[in-house]
Amino acid sequence: MKLSTRADLAGAPGRARRPATPATRLVCWPALALLTLLPACAPAPAAPPAPPRAAPPAPPPSTLGEGQLGEYRSERFDLRLPLPDARGFRVEDGEGPWLVATHAASSTSLLVRTWRADGRASRAACEARARLWRDLPRPDRSLTAVERRIDAPEGFDTIVEIGVADAPPGAPIEGFAVAFGGSGRRCFAFIAETRAAGPSAERLVAERLAAVVEISLGGVRLEREVAPAIPREPLP
């Protein structure tokens, strides 16, 4: 398992050092012959304190479209997942039942997995099983904006639904994209969630979801037709 990008991440700049407080200096005639005048020398007046530095402006919230495209390969789930701003994602693909990719700068997370179905893997059956394993966003409890069929992974019967969770005025906006697909005896699930607050919240949520749906979901690829042997979770 590895994460590859088109360019190396530049090193983060170091923390700037604060200037030291000037030490008190003796002001005397610079001549060795006048050493007898040293007792009469007075300390120089202290330099006035430097004005406080203005705090740098906060960086704008990430839209996921400004970073470099990369790809994560999961041997466990036998898939390749493109990621916008790949260096900003933290991917957890250990022993848990899902691949989890988190982009902290944009409050965006992805859940992805494939598995073998007991019988024919219809899209509806795959969604029902995934929802037994984990509490996932439900379009019927939100303001669904988009529902469409997508050929991802290739050959799967997949539908993606994009919506915004119902929230009171002034609360952060939470958006999601959920996709479930089936092909033969193999199931696929992709869930993206993001949130934003402030006057640009609606635009940010829309842009982030568009990026992960078009790049990550639209570009996901399975490397084998037969699903890898992923242990099944017991039913609740």
Q: What's the story with the biggest beta sheet?
A: 7 strands, antiparallel
Strand residue content: 25-35%
Characterize the quaternary organization of these chains.
Answer: single chain
Q: Describe the global form.
A: globular
Structural class: alpha+beta
Spell out the helices and strands N to C.
EEEEEEHEEEEHE
Radius of gyration: 28 Å
Q: Number of DSSP strands?
A: 11
Describe the structure.
With 236 residues, this protein is α+β, with helices and mostly antiparallel strands. A seven-stranded antiparallel beta sheet has the order 4-5-6-10-9-8-7, sandwiched between helices. 28% of the residues are buried. A hairpin with a 7-residue loop joins β8 (157-165) and β9. 13% of the residues lie in helices and 31% in strands.
Any chance you could write out the topology, listing elements then pairs?
Elements: E1 2-5, E2 70-74, E3 79-83, E4 89-92, E5 99-103, E6 108-116, H1 123-133, E7 142-150, E8 157-165, E9 173-183, E10 186-196, H2 201-219, E11 221-222
Antiparallel strand pairs: 1-2, 2-3, 3-11, 4-5, 5-6, 6-10, 7-8, 8-9, 9-10
Quick overview of this protein structure:
The protein is an alpha+beta fold and 236 residues long. The chain is built from two helices and eleven strands, in the order E-E-E-E-E-E-H-E-E-E-E-H-E.
Can you tag this structure with a few keywords?
single chain, 236 residues, alpha+beta, seven-stranded antiparallel sheet, four-stranded antiparallel sheet, 2 helices, 13% helix, 31% strand, globular
